[in-house]
């Protein structure tokens, strides 16, 4: 031990920096790794043919008609991304108070599923089960005269939507609506119709977050929603214990996988959920998280690649088994570069 530096605790016997000295030892002690297997790519689908629109508040994200989406999927599949999730942009004249378009077998989502499954049978196709793209008022469910989103009547429509997606060939249904009891009702209906292997990824702990803003622009539900919030069904950002109760219920009702949403501001919830249940746990790095990073990157204030990869690996460290992220395709490319 050196005379100049009297030992404090175990120093200098223990020097944490020794292992950080070289790339080889940093690699050896690395605890978590982001891989392409962890990525789910959310995509926005437009009706019609040969249509491509940029989403202004999400630089690098586009809405695509099914024909162009199929082209995009060539590279998604080639990169090895296991699954995508579909979000439809429904024309105003197809929206209604009762959201009938949500279970139209010839609708945009079922048509997209069929086309994708035909060309890419091994790609996991996840669909969002919720009514907000289909309601004229932009809420995730049916509303009563006071504008309150009614639970049980909404579930009836969600179940019809689920069967419609399953019939079209969806692999995983992802209810993002936060109605009470919908997972159980969906599971029962799927079993009764012999869709035993259609999985349910429930948005179990979905917070009433302001970080969904750019997504609502992307699917065109922001205007319809007006000033109306979703606080009567999505969770209060201040609550953590409540998330555990939500997850417990959804697992009991038959959810195969559960999700926490948004991501970065809720990683404490991801950790608690993973530790408590040990179930397949997913996290959604939402549109606002993506927009913040991209805005800073476009201004030259942050480095896009290293900041995006840092945010994604932090989600793995928090206990997520997989991540829904608009960076999925770029992340898969970056990961390939460093292999
Ligand atoms: C709709 C839904 C939303 C998102 C996914 N599904 C928005 C909302 O609840 O208003 C948000 C995704 C994102 O912000 O990236 N049920």
UniProtKB/TrEMBL annotation:
EC number: 4.2.1.24
Group of enzyme by EC: lyase
GO cellular component: cytosol
Pathway membership, UniProt: Porphyrin-containing compound metabolism; protoporphyrin-IX biosynthesis; coproporphyrinogen-III from 5-aminolevulinate: step 1/4
PROSITE patterns reported for this sequence: D_ALA_DEHYDRATASE
Keyword Aminoacyl-tRNA synthetase belongs to the record: no
One of the GO BP terms on file: heme biosynthetic process
Keywords for the protein's UniProt record, in alphabetical order: Heme biosynthesis, Lyase, Magnesium, Metal-binding, Porphyrin biosynthesis
CDD domains: ALAD_PBGS_aspartate_rich (cd04823)
Keyword Hydrolase: no
Catalytic residues in the record: 206, 261
Residues holding Mg(2+): 246
Superkingdom classification of source: Bacteria
Reactions catalysed, as given in the entry: 2 5-aminolevulinate = porphobilinogen + 2 H2O + H(+)
GO MF assignments: porphobilinogen synthase activity; zinc ion binding
Record-linked Pfam families: ALAD (PF00490)
Signal peptide (residue range): none
Similarity field: Belongs to the ALAD family.
Subunit annotation: Homooctamer.
Stated name of the protein: Delta-aminolevulinic acid dehydratase
């Amino acid at each position: 031990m050196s005379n100049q530096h009297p030992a404090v605790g175990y120093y200098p016997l223990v020097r944490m920096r020794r292992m950080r000295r070289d790339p080889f030892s940093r690699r050896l002690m690395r605890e978590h790794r982001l891989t392409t297997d962890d990525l789910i790519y959310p995509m926005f689908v437009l009706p019609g043919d040969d249509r491509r629109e940029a989403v202004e508040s999400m630089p690098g994200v586009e809405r695509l008609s099914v024909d162009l989406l199929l082209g995009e999927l060539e590279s998604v599949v080639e990169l090895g991304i296991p699954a995508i999730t579909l979000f439809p942009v429904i024309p105003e004249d197809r929206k209604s108070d009762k959201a009938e378009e949500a279970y139209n077998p010839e609708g945009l989502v079922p048509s997209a599923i069929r086309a994708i499954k035909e060309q890419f049978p091994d790609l996991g196709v996840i669909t969002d089960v919720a009514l907000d793209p289909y309601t004229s008022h932009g809420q995730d469910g049916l509303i009563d005269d006071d504008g309150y989103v009614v639970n049980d009547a909404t579930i009836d429509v969600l179940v019809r939507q689920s069967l419609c997606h399953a019939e079209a060939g969806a692999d995983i249904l992802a209810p993002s609506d936060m109605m009470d009891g919908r997972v159980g009702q969906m599971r029962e209906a799927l079993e009764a119709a012999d869709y035993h292997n259609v999985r349910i990824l429930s948005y179990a702990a979905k917070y009433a977050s302001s970080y969904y803003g750019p997504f609502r622009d992307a699917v065109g539900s922001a205007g319809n929603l007006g000033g109306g919030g979703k606080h009567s069904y999505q969770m209060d950002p201040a609550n953590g214990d409540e998330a555990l109760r939500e997850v417990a219920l959804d697992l009991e009702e038959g959810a195969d996988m559960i999700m926490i949403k948004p991501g970065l501001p809720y990683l404490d919830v991801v950790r608690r959920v993973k530790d408590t249940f040990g179930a397949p746990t997913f996290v959604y790095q939402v549109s606002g998280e993506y927009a913040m990073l991209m805005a800073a990157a476009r201004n030259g204030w942050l480095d896009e690649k290293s900041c995006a990869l840092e945010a994604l690996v932090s989600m793995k460290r928090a206990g997520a088994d997989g991540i829904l992220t608009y960076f999925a395709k770029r992340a898969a490319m970056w990961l390939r570069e460093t292999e």
